[in-house]
Amino acid sequence: MLLKSKLLLLTFLCLTAIVTQAQNQESYIKGRIYDSINDIPLQSASVVVYKTKDSSLVNFQIADYKGEFNIKDLPPKTPMYAMVTFTGYISQKITLDTSNTFWDLKTINLKHVDSSNLEEVVVKAVAPIKMNGDTLEINPDAFKLDSNAVVEDMLLRVPGMVVWADGTITMNGKKIEKLLVDGKPFFGGQTNIATQNLPKDAIQKIQLYQEKDPTKIEGQDPAKKDSLYSLNIQLKADKKNGLFGKVTAGYGTDKRYDASGVIQAYDPKNQYGIAFGTDNTNRTSGIGSGAFLENTFKQNFWRYSYSDPNVSGIKKNLWANAKYQHSFNEANNGRFYTRLTGDYGYSNIKTNVFTNTDQTDNLITYNQHSISNSNSDNSTNAHQINLNYDSRKQYGDYVNINSKFEYSSNDNNSQSNYNIFRNDTAISANNVLNNTHSNSKNVNIGGFVSRNDYNKQNNPLTSYSLNFNVNYDDNNSVTQTSNIFHSFVDTVPSSTIIRNYNNNSKNLSTNAYLRYDGFKKLLFGIYNFYNIDISLNNRISYSRNTQNNHVQDLDTLTNSYLDNNYLTYDNTLSNFNYSPGFSLSKSINKNIYGKYYYWLYINASIEHNWIDQNNRSSLLYRNIDRNYSLWTPSININFNKQKNNQYWMYAYLNANISPSLPTIDQLAPVVDSSNRYSVVSGNPFLRAGKTKSINYNLSIDRSNQKAKSGYGLQLNGYWSSAQNAVIDSLVYDASGKSIRYLLNGDGAKNFSLNGDIHFSTKFKTKYQLQAQYTPNFNINSSPSFINGFATTSKNQTLGHGVSLSFIIIDKFNMTIGERIINTKNTQNETATKIQNNTTSLDATYTVIKNLNISSNFNYQTNKASTNKTNAAIWNATSTYRFMQDKVEVKFTAFDLLRQNKNITNFANQNNIGTTVTNGLRQYFMLSFSFYPRKFGGKQNNNMGVIVR
């Protein structure tokens, strides 16, 4: 641990020294830009600095509302010139004297373009960035990059823009929430699919702007911000259609294999994507729909997709995914649209897992110790189809229809052995064999219709929103089990159960929510009512669950299966809920152009819930009718403030009271005698409970285009307290079986707080430094009874995460991190502690233009009580590209030190233990990849494919 701390400190000091040295050597240029006649500042004028030698871009900036600029990170003693431009004015070229290290240009007066001075207008260079109204526009042609450069290569060079290690993009500290291509989501809207695939040379311009959050206007999600920061990539006229992808095949030692393919194509109206693959390398990312995210043309210089060392067992994946999107118009306006999207997914996952667990339970008066081992073979086939129709004709008017169809089947064979000890004395053993086949079908149809004129100027009486959803499930399972129980105490007999289950359940659920926003106009007419909006809310839901369970036991005397009359039963559960209510809301905002903007939104609502539960069963004790009448109030407060070139802040607070109702299986459960060590005893007298909760969110980001550094803070908090919650009263018998009696009780509480503090800086054009600190804290208390003794279990978790990234664009990047998680469980003054530490190092170095080497190292420590496990997982990759970067050879090494042990120490409410599973071991793999790429060309309108 001491060695790790020294290495982290040494790395931090080295990077700090590099940054300090670079900052000490920097030069800068400043000044202000004015209209030569009216003597007013020209906000949003562009100032671009070029090298005199080859007119290559050095740096640039947009003038603020005072017309001022301050461009830093200029190379000292380098011949340069500055171009000052503004739409409708004559540009000025200013030569910078190399004898200076900084330049104060004072006031630069620009002249209007008119008929008398048209000859003076000479375009010397392409401005890389400019303001067009309230939209920031980036011109890719101003960036001289490699011919194979993609959009992300350019974004990394834009001042104020940061691509973070997790793929998040921020501009002047503000997160880009939505990315579009020609006004449309690009293959699902994930940022890196566009930025790491589309070539820079295919881009006409990139636009950044703020727009209203659609869900906020509709009132769908009050936690959403008032506005979103969006990025739109406009393609050149001859690049409106294209094809790109990646096909990979690899084979390695220990018979490891990994093969996959991703092909994507687009035109002005359509997007097509197909992905497929198979592997036995325990991959958890880059498969299924995730394949579109990781198989991009640009090397993901933050991390390579390695096998997951934390996966239990050995997985074999076979998968396929297809995507389609059709836009019914070719407009580049992302605000108004009509589109249809669909995708299909298939997966076949086979897993073999061996598990050994050693666990000790604290039962107050004595300890119960269990040793178990199991072997499981599992195979799952799944198909899923999603369809989504979206239409937005004007602000506030939406139609969305979405549907999902799923089918899955599963086969599982398992064998488990349990040995139970009271202190050090054996009291029972259990051997279980299970063979299960199951299948399930699911159909879900939902959507919303909204007519909500944001300014309520057209006809506020017709302002409403409607949400609806219908879901249907059909599940079938057949299980054969052999359960042999050995008791080593006289009071509990040994027994053998050989049982067959044939179970079917069908579930239909529907719900709808209607909100009418024209009630104020209907009630008060032309009176404004202090700008307070009044909405009527109506929620209605109905569900029906039908079960048919047929269970048979083997009669050893006749060697035939006989019906188990207790476990064989029919059951129908119906739930009906009607919740009318109303809400009051008020919005306050102020905007002074170029200076600041703030927005405050308050919403208070109350609903009354009438709930009817009806259960009918062939088991008479489960025939239960219950009715509830409950009030559920809530309040939401949103605050958003932005001060130009200083900071951006968003805060959100939600407080509500929600009901918690006992289920039929808590009121009158069906107890299966094959569950040897855990039995639930129901309580038909359980009452409805309620939970009070508060959610809080705060985000602050520095937003200054003149600064080369940016930083921000995000804080999330949650608190809840339950009254009349269902709690456990556990009683353990002589064989080690726990019987759970259910009671109502108070005292269940939860509090959590987590944060994200991040910092980034750019210097000398190609260098970046990023730092991030992510703390989290959680504490919850759960009252219960154990063997008649009242006890409260408190679970406390405190975590710290630190990461530091250093990047030399196109050459080198390194990220070091430390994650520490401490968990403490306390019960009756007896405390158990668990600690997980992970020290990580990820680095990638470009040896020559097309040759990269990458290494990933994780040192993991897992400690619970006296049990401690260490593991050093070291992976490495080397890649080489040729044939215009379209062919790649990659060599991968997994677990070079052979330390992947799959050992986990755990501590829960009243137990502590260790679990060991089988997992992936060291292997080496050689793979080949091909990147098909074609942008532009003729378009076949019938097929929507590219014709070469």
Automatic annotation (TrEMBL):
Q: State the InterPro entries in the record.
A: CarboxyPept-like_regulatory (IPR008969)
Top-level division of the source organism's lineage? Bacteria
Signal sequence annotation: 1-22
Query: What are the entry keywords?
Result: Signal
Keyword Signal tagged: yes
This protein's name: Outer membrane protein beta-barrel domain-containing protein
Native species: Pseudopedobacter saltans
